Amino acid sequence: MNKKILHTCIDLLSRREHSRKELKQKLLLREHDIDEINPVLDFVISEDYLNETRFADYVFRSRVGKGLSLIHI
């Protein structure tokens, strides 16, 4: 497992929740190899650093906080 990619993932996740897709895109923009990204993403999911349910809750709370109605969310 590539430690540089792992540290980047943890750094990004320490700032806010991300989806797997979003985190993958950010790592690709940093020109990491896709074959090295996927095992790291699998690891952060297995360790519950990355959690899609928490991400969905984060998106919901942030949009409610902006005053959007349930219809818009």
Q: Sheet bearing the most strands, described?
A: none
Rg value: 14 Å
Q: In what range is the share of β-strand residues?
A: under 5%
> Would you tell me the overall average pLDDT?
92
Please give a structural write-up.
- The chain is mostly helical.
- The protein is built from 4 helices and no strands.
- It has helices at residues 3-15, 20-29, 34-46, 52-65.
- The radius of gyration is 14 Å and the shape is elongated.
- The model has no long low-confidence stretch (mean pLDDT 92).
Task: Summarize the SSE layout with pairings.
Blueprint lengths: L2 H13 L4 H10 L4 H13 L5 H14 L8
Helix pairs in contact: 1-3, 2-3
Fill in the keyword field for this structure.
mainly alpha, 68% helix
Tell me briefly what this model is.
The chain has 73 residues and is mainly alpha-helical. Helix content is 68%, strand content 0%.
